[in-house]
Amino acid sequence: MPARDFKLRQLFLSALLLAFIAGCTTTEDPFIAAAAKGDTRTLKSMLDSGTNVNSRNTDGKSALMAAANQNQENAARLLLGKGADVNAKDNAGYTTLMAASAGGNAVIVQGILARGANVNEKDKDGTTALLAAAKQGRTSIVDMLLTKGADLNARDNEGKTALWYAKKHNYVRLTSFLEKAGATE
User: Fold this and answer.
1) Residue 163, C-beta contacts closer than 8 angstroms, at least 6 positions apart
2) Neighbour tally for 28: CB within 10 Å
3) What DSSP assignment string belongs to the chain?
4) Is the dihedral of CA 91, 30, 135, 133 positive or negative?
5) pLDDT by residue (tens digit) across 23-44?
6) Burial level of 83, CB count in 10 A (0-12/13-18/19+)?
């Protein structure tokens, strides 16, 4: 077996083992699993071996989405540096920015915004990044999104706004912030 084939086989088996350890089934993508765990060594190795930085799992989730949602800053930085699509959507229309906003890591959100993410994109439920952040009580992320042009009074398909979610979950600080910004229910 040539050295390159052996290295690729070893890489694949390492990624499969990582996916198993991460609690993934064998049908889940080891690249996505590595991103979710923040395993930059495996990510670099897979990228160097030809894995597409924008590859997706069966749900349409990208590695950047997984890293952003799990607050894996180093993995997100690596993927962004390799040109990961900041406007990628999963099968439900959930975007990378929504995942990052819900995750609450300001550095990741800033990195995604700096690369041109659409701040007002909606998924199939009408959720925006602002609504995703509000559902989790992420006041600093809501503030950041508003400074980048997010619609303060965006409504999901049920007609609910960021202020509605803040009040529902009793996020006092976020409720106060949104009210001062002029939000409506």
Assistant:
1) 134, 153, 175, 178, 179, 183, 184, 185
2) 18
3) --HHHHHHHHHHHHHHHHHHHTT--TTS-HHHHHHHHT-HHHHHHHHHTT--TT-B-TT--BHHHHHHHTT-HHHHHHHHHTT--TT-B-TT--BHHHHHHHHT-HHHHHHHHHTT--TT---TT---HHHHHHHTT-HHHHHHHHHTT--TT---TTS--HHHHHHHTT-HHHHHHHHHHT---
4) negative
5) 444 347 899 999 999 999 999 9
6) exposed
Burial class (CB in 10 A: 0-12, 13-18, 19+), 106: middle
Q: What pLDDT, in 10s, does the model give residues 74-114?
A: 999 999 999 999 999 999 999 999 999 999 999 999 999 99
Residue 21 — pLDDT band, cuts 50, 70, 90?
very low
Two structure tokens written together for 185:
């229910």
Q: What is the pLDDT of residue 3?
A: 58
Read off the tokens for 68: 């952003």
Q: Is 60 helix (H, G, I), strand (E, B) or coil?
A: coil
Ordered by where they begin, the domains of the chain are 3-181 (1.25.40.20)
| Dist CA 165 CA 135 (whole Å) | 6
124, pLDDT greater than 90? yes
